[in-house]
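Recall the central idea of this unit: under ordinary conditions, the amino acid sequence of a chain determines the structure it adopts. In this exercise we apply that idea directly, starting from the sequence alone.
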Amino acid sequence: MKLFDTARSLLGITHAHGIVRRYFVVNGFDGALTMLGIIVGFMIGGPAELSVIIHACLGAAIALGVSGISSAYVSETAERRRALEQLEGAMLADLQDSAHGEAARWVPMLVALINGAAPLLLSLLIITPLWLGEAGIPLPVAPLNAAVFTALLIVFLLGVYLGRVAGVSWLKSGMRTLVVALITVALIYLFVGG
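Accordingly, the structure predicted from this sequence is:
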């Protein structure tokens, strides 16, 4: 609990709540669409072992996670360092040992973890039906179809979340992101399935 309170305090000092939220949604959306693309690609490409599909999805999920962590850490470290230097210049004081200095050091790591965790965790949720299918656990639909449905549901829920954050219709926002996912599927069928 103390860890969450500390993280909340550091995010408050740097006003980074919105940044964390954006990183989560943007990279989560990337992860969901990437998994959707891989799974639909396998559906178009013909029969493949579930283990092959799972390995391809896991490889992409891990790459998205590492990319998210490293890119966010590098960019946020630079931004936080710059903001701290500007604040030090305005206050004519060294703030390295202050709460602002601590926030400048820790917020990039927190943002990076969120940025990397979002696509990884959402990807793992999306491929859960594939794992269940490989384990022989009966599903109401084929594992690939269940994974596609899961991806579409996650994309819709990300849109719902954005709608609630923006104070607009959650349904319209969810449908907007769902349409993007369906256009993605249509483009895959158009260019890969043709």
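The chain has one domain: 2-189.
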